[in-house]
Amino acid sequence: MLSNADYNAAVKVENLHKDFGKLKVLQGISTNIKHGEVVAIIGPSGSGKSTFLRCMNLLEMPTAGKIYIQGADITAPKTDIMKVRQNIGMVFQHFH
């Protein structure tokens, strides 16, 4: 259950995991990003930065964990992800 402070967060990630078969890419990531806050995700090549961002707009489904956007659990089974994506901007480094 989200607290009042969590409802005021633009993005809240709880215990996010992403596996590709036996490969564990994201393991237990949690963060809280406030409205107006600027955040940089940095790390070496292959460390899971892009996977983390792809999970945040459900281009990749997390193996486990919760993602809240404006207090709404976008990982809930009945989420209209197309509606959620209308409010999420993402610029790809390379378009494939």
Walk me through what this model shows.
The structure is a single chain. The protein has one domain (4-85): P-loop containing nucleotide triphosphate hydrolases (Rossmann fold), CATH 3.40.50. A four-stranded antiparallel sheet has the order 2-1-3-4. The chain is α+β, with helices and mostly antiparallel strands and 96 residues long. The mean pLDDT is 88. Helices cover 18% and strands 33% of the residues. A hairpin with a 2-residue loop joins strand 1 and strand 2 (23-34). It starts with a helix and ends in an 11-residue tail after the last helix.
Offer a quick outline of the entry:
The protein is an alpha+beta fold. The protein has three helices and four strands, in the order αββαββα.
